[in-house]
Amino acid sequence: MKRRDFLKLVSSAGVCAAIPFPLGTAFGATYSPYEGPIYFNIHVSGGLDQSTFTDPREDSLINTWADNQDAGIAGNIRYAPVPGNQAFFDKYYKDMLVINGIDGETNGHASGTVSRWSGRLSRGYPNTCELIAATYGQGLSLPYISRGGYEAGVGIMPYTRLFDLNMMRAVSLPNQASATSNHLKQSDLDILQRYKQARIDTLNNTNTYLPALTRAFSEVDIAYQGRDSLERLADYIPSTGLDTTDAQGNSTNFVRNIHLALISAQAGLTTCVNLASGIGFDLHDNFDAQSDVRMPQLTGAIDYLWEKSEELGLADRLVVFINTELGRTPHYNANQGKDHHRIGSAMFMKKDATWGNRVVGASDERHAVLKINPQTLQVDENGIVLKPKHLIQAYRQLAGVDQGGLAQSYPLNAEDVDFFNPGKNTGYTVNFRA
Amino acid sequence: MLLKLNFSFTSWPLFLVILSTSLLFSCMPVPGDEEKEDDITTGNDCTTVPDLFTKTVWPSVRGICVDCHNPGGVANNTRLVFSQDADKQTENYNVLRNFSLGNAVTLLNKTIGLPVHGGGAPYVDQSQQEYQNLDSLISVMERECGATSTVSFFDDVQFYSEQETLKKAAIVLAGRRPAVSELNAVAAGGEDSLRVTIRNMMQGERFERFLSETANNHFLSTGLSGGANRYPVASDYPKVDDIANNTERTIFRAAVQQEPLQLLRYIIRNELPYTEILTANYTVVNPVLASIYEADVPGGFDNEMDNSEWRKATIPEMLRFGRIYPHAGVLTTHAWRQRFPTTASNRNRQRAKMVLLQFLGVNLEALAQRPLVSESPFLVPTLEDPACTSCHNIMDPVAGAFQNWADLNRYRRFSANTTALPSSYRGNNYPRDADGNAYYQRGDNWFRDVLPPGFNGVLAPGGHEGNEAALQWLGQEMAKDSRFSMGAVHFWYHGLFGEKVLTSPGDSSAADYQKRLNAFNAQDKIFREIAARFPDDRGHGAYNVKDLLVDLITSQWFRASGIAEDVAEERAIELEAVGSYHLLTPEQLSRKMEATMGESWSRLMPITRSYGLLYGGFNARNLIERNTSITTVLNAVLERMGNEVGCDIVKNDFLESTDQRLLFPLVELNHTPDNARENILLNIQYLHNHMLGELLALDATELLQTYDLFQEVWENRDIAPEVTLRCSLNNQNDAEYSGRSWVIVLLYLMNDPRYIYSY
To answer: What pLDDT does residue B127 have?
Structure first.
């Protein structure tokens, strides 16, 4: 997509006022840090069992814990009584919108990842993070950070992977040779950058290049826009290094990556983060033993995300979307594992959300999908099946990127579902003992 | 209540026949009404029928296909239903035509049984005349009724000339610019000379590095890491215990990682059939691997201390089983299997998926997009449930060929080295079959609740009892498969174009579906033509990868350079993947810098550390998808690179004699805008062509802009720097400041998207 076309689309979205860096501003304009909502995608790798999270079944054929335990309840939300869940749901239920009974329409990891994160099975649609970053992140140096999950881009805002903190410090000052020397004369480089921008502007307005190359021009142009802000990152890198352990003592790379991403958000450089948990849930054998270890790692990391955000003054701005590529079967296989299942769950989290403490969508006793009325949210055999397109449409609405040119370029054609109405709730259709 | 499969497991051959004709048919995704509407073109039926249909294709279709594809036949619920009435020839032509207009690939594939076809493979493979007749007819049917002219997919696309193509090929394959003699040969000899000249570039270390990088994108073998049990162990190779220290261990592990890559290099360097990638009854080793494996190396090594020397070898005997190692190309290299490990429950399915993907271009995940049911009532879903069998029927027999390699990647390591079956399966607690019997039978080497080892509906020798050479059998069978050639095209396309091949769009309700399908069909057509030639001996042996690379590089897809005019958004979707433009990898960028500027940036390599990892985003270990887009951070890496090396590159080029310079053959350091404007302009013109492939007139706006940059920097020369500078050009060796002005021009061009996104 050419930059001039992109600018038209973003302008048509009516979001220019929200952009911290005026579109098309000449090089050298003052940069303002991003202070809007920070969207945080968590891709739970491998296919999270809905019955072990927010859609529990007190049926020992589905969950062995049901032999002697009841499903937990926090507010309106049910959860499986596995390690880590009670503390997590008791602490955060008011901030949660649970979505159950999502039909991902596939049993494959790769296709499930595409479907659950883009809203359709075919490739070619963006991760909502890319839309968010494209809408709100113009001029930022790290508007979209990613590590794992669904990363296929459509060329409107490429992501950046984060690695080593020291290297980030080095690239934020590319001309610095040492504390007291540079490589080249800075004023010469300032002249250079002006000409580079002019060159890109010329290329972007030339009509005879193949789409692959015009996409490259757009990407370079976007990259230039973020140059000035990159220097800020160095100021926010903690001298003590990155956290790797959550409050419960679980040590994971996921915690480290969360901290790394939050540093960039704190510096005002980032609008959306897309992280894979790295804690895998594709448990085709010994499900219970492995899940009992991994579930608290997952909930502990999400708890860390909120606690650290609070510490950094970001919690009020944070919107978390927890999603996964597949659900898991409502029974154990011959190896005491659970296999792939197309029906699963997801969750939005926001501190003090008016739409929190609610459940939308449902599955039946055997985790088969149930139709719901998109307006009343009640189970209705004449209703609709919740699919990833509804989920992603909800995300776009939440992020304010559902209207205008960009969204229209990637239409989901999903029925409107009243996800965020605090007065409506699907709840659970199955019976619980307690 | 789970359903039970009620027949004996001894009747596997019959079972497979039944399976292939009944379950597979029922597993075929049944298109919903929306799909039927979207996939069939109507409203433009032809009233005349070409002879090719009447006299050639229809007699074959009528005799083979119509038996099922008729209103009362078993295929009457598909999208291709013909009339059996002899007077309905025009109607039948339009049925075939309307289906093929949106589904040409599907139509052709079904005739050769791909991916699954209830009617089997009536046209056997692509080489058969019936297949080719149908393929030709499809081209005719794509035109408007009665039209004699064709609209080509590439009608509004411009292409690089032979010489421009040669320049790009030289960067890719040889890491250099073409010699004048090569350019002249191509200018004189045209296309034929281009092919020969490109082929001749395919030699030397830079070409082989291209081979390794491409292979590693797929094999990921250099990402092998972890503890000792991830590598060959002393129980299998006693010499492992001779490793004395960490240094030797590092060398050994590097050799293990390199083995599959070096094997591939060996095959291609020696222009052996690429089928040996799966069938080679040997491997390659360097001195350290030869020692550990106790390998037979015919002719030995030139230098036993040189671990960069790799030789053909066989492993004569493995400790535990006293037989010759069952070499099967890369499949029996430790690193290939270790990067795609198995577990007791995975049962080699990941390896099956990868071998099908890497060598046949078959993506199993694409078969699982629309399962029919959400919960299985079956006892063994992977055998009985259509939702599962669409993948497992293809995957599990292939997985069975890996039967001898258990978890920890060791050959038959259980039960006195007789089996690779895990104890959890062999034990008494494992669930029983429908008759209450244990699945495991003494002597088995494959799971009896999984389809028997095989491929393409053919059972492997040994069945569940096992076959010590099962992988060798699989390699031979796969090499004979007609999809092997297409798999090779897909494999090497990624190395050249920096991205994966297009896949057929799955969602027919999507607004861009038709355009994406057009793009897929156009690319697939080119690939099929290249794949069709791959088995041919064109003077250098059959299945020659060098010939395939030449075909890819001289294809329209690679040589596309631009478009004639601004295209509509819909057309842009079709052209999205056309051309070879992609963000060059750190390796490719380094080679391009060496070719165009004489040197590269040492901190961009290796790609597993530092700036190389940040820029490339690939380490073959946990980062297995390369960065494909420039970002602010990556741009900052480029800026740092230019700032660190720019001065040295310019200085060193000016130190060369004029005829040896890569960058500044037309100017000297004492040339300034005041005294040599013309020279400077000419050199800028040269640089735009040399670095970016742009042929600009001396009065072109872009060229003059570059000149303005030079001039403005030069005029800025008296402004003192803010701090001490590290640049190797200074007032002593660059008194006129021209050198430093050229540094800025060089950075301008180095950071240009046409430099970093193009060969």
So the answer is: 57
Residue of B nearest to A171 (CA): B636
The answer to whether the Cβ–Cβ distance between A155 and B505 falls below 8 Å is no
Which chain B residues have a beta carbon less than 8 Å from that of A339? 381
**Other C-beta atoms within 10 Å of B247: how many?**
9
Distance from CA of B187 to the nearest CA of A (A): 25
Residue-number span of the structural domain to which A97 is assigned = 3-409
Closest residue on chain B to A112 (Cα): B369
Is the Cβ of B564 closer than 8 Å to some Cβ of chain A? yes
Question: Mean of the per-residue pLDDT values for chain B?
Answer: 86
Q: Where are the domains of chain B?
A: 1-13+351-481, 45-141, 159-201, 222-339, 482-574, 586-756
**Residues 6+ away with beta carbon under 8 Å from B54:** B89
Q: How many domains does chain A have?
A: 1
> For residues A54 and A101, what is the distance between their CA atoms, to the nearest angstrom?
10
Q: Are B118 and B28 in contact, with CB atoms under 8 Å apart?
A: yes
Q: Who contacts A299 (Cβ-Cβ below 8 Å, separation ≥6)? A: A84, A85, A87, A88
Q: Is the pTM of this model over 0.90?
A: no
B142-157 mean pLDDT: 68
Kindly give the residue spans of alpha helices, DSSP state H, lying in B554-700: 556-559, 569-574, 586-597, 610-616, 632-655, 677-692
Q: Helix (H) and strand (E) counts for chain B?
A: 31, 7
- Residue A383: inside a domain: yes
**Residue B518 and residue B520: Cα distance in Å, rounded?**
5
Stretches in chain A below the pLDDT threshold 70 = 1-31, 163
pLDDT at B324: 81
Interface contact B368-A161, CB threshold 8 A: no
DSSP state string for A17-48: GG-SS-TTPPTTPPP----S-EEEEEEETT--
Q: What share of chain A is helix, strand, coil (3-state, %, to 5)?
A: 35, 15, 50
Q: Which two tokens stand for residue B648?
A: 């040295």
A326 in a structural domain: yes
The string of DSSP codes covering B520-573 is HHHHHHHHHHHHHHTTS-SSS-SS-HHHHHHHHHTSHHHHEEEESS---HHHHH
The residues, ordered by sequence, that sit 6+ positions from B204 with a Cβ below 8 Å of its Cβ are: B174
DSSP B377: -
Copy the structure tokens of residue B402. 């890996």
Please report, to the nearest 10 degrees, the dihedral formed by the alpha carbons of residues B499, B505, B506, B508 taken in order. Answer: 160
| Residue A349 counted as domain residue | yes
- We report the CATH number of the domain holding residue A30 as 3.40.720
Q: Is residue A103 in some structural domain?
A: yes
pLDDT at A233: 84
List chain A residues with CB under 8 Å of B627. 161
Q: What is the pLDDT of residue B84?
A: 86
* Residue from B3, B349, B635, B759 to probe the interface with A (highest A Cβ count within 10 Å): B635
Q: Is the predicted pLDDT of residue B678 greater than 70, yes or no?
A: yes
**Which of B633, B687, B746 should we substitute to test contact with A (largest number of A Cβ atoms within 10 Å)?**
B633
Chain A contact for B615 (CB, 8 A cutoff): no
> Is the Cβ pair B725, A172 closer than 8 Å?
no
Considering just the CA atoms, what is the radius of gyration of chain A in Å?
23
According to the model, what pLDDT value does residue B8 have?
Answer: 34
CA angle B554, A1, B575 (to 5 degrees): 30
Tokens (6 digits) for A298:
């997952």
* B327 or B31: which leads in pLDDT: B327
Question: What's the angle, vertex CA B338, arms to CA B334 and CA B339, rounded to 5?
Answer: 125
Count Cα atoms within 13 angstroms, Cβ side, for B135. 21
Task: Establish if B636 touches chain A: CB-CB under 8 angstroms.
Answer: yes
DSSP string, B110-127: HHTT-S--TT--TT-STT
Residue-wise pLDDT tens digits, B205-248: 999 999 999 999 999 999 999 899 899 999 889 999 999 999 99
